[in-house]
Write a sequence for this structure.
């Protein structure tokens, strides 16, 4: 249970996350100030919603391939052909993958990745797609947060100042923390403008 929001600006992206982990039994684990649902691995900022095991692996085991200065279609191709197989291998090597061969291209979390100012939101099957608004969400509070974000800022973020986007994301996650038991403030927001 969590709330993660991502927005794509013009040459930059931002990811925000709340500070609570909760389990299916209703136990709540507020994260300390030195712990975040957003981790940095080389040039990447990575956040995950779903099973905490995915974020543990991404933070402490995963060694992603370096994209260099790729952008546009070259970066997209790199993410699909190099990044995704390495992420999948890290999950499988750590026993975080179904054993049934029919669903081997699945895992239990939604993962947001920002690299070189470009945002990717990977689903449970490692796929990604871009929407015209450039806003993405995950977790139990994601629906509330994306509703708040869209009400505050209905247009795409390409002409938005980065600091304004940070404040909008924080406010949207704060709204989610009011209405979703699996979300709690404070939030962390990173901006990737490399």
């Amino acid at each position: 249970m969590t709330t993660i929001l991502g927005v794509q600006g013009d040459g930059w992206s931002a990811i925000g996350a709340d500070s609570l982990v909760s389990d299916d039994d209703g136990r709540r684990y507020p994260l300390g100030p030195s712990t975040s649902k957003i981790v940095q691995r080389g040039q990447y900022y990575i956040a995950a919603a779903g099973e905490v095991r995915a974020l543990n692996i991404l933070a402490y085991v995963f060694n992603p391939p370096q994209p260099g200065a790729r952008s546009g279609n070259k970066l997209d191709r790199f993410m699909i052909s190099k990044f995704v197989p390495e992420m999948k291998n890290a999950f499988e090597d750590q026993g975080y993958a179904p054993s049934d061969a029919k669903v081997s291209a699945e895992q239990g979390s939604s993962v947001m990745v920002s690299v070189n100012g470009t945002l990717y939101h990977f689903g449970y099957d490692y796929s990604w797609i871009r929407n015209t608004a450039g806003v993405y969400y995950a977790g139990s509070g994601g629906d509330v947060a994306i509703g708040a974000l869209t009400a505050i800022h209905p247009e795409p973020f390409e002409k938005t100042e980065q600091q304004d986007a940070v404040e909008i994301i924080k406010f949207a996650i704060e709204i989610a923390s009011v209405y979703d038991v699996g979300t709690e403030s404070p939030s962390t927001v990173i901006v990737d403008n490399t």
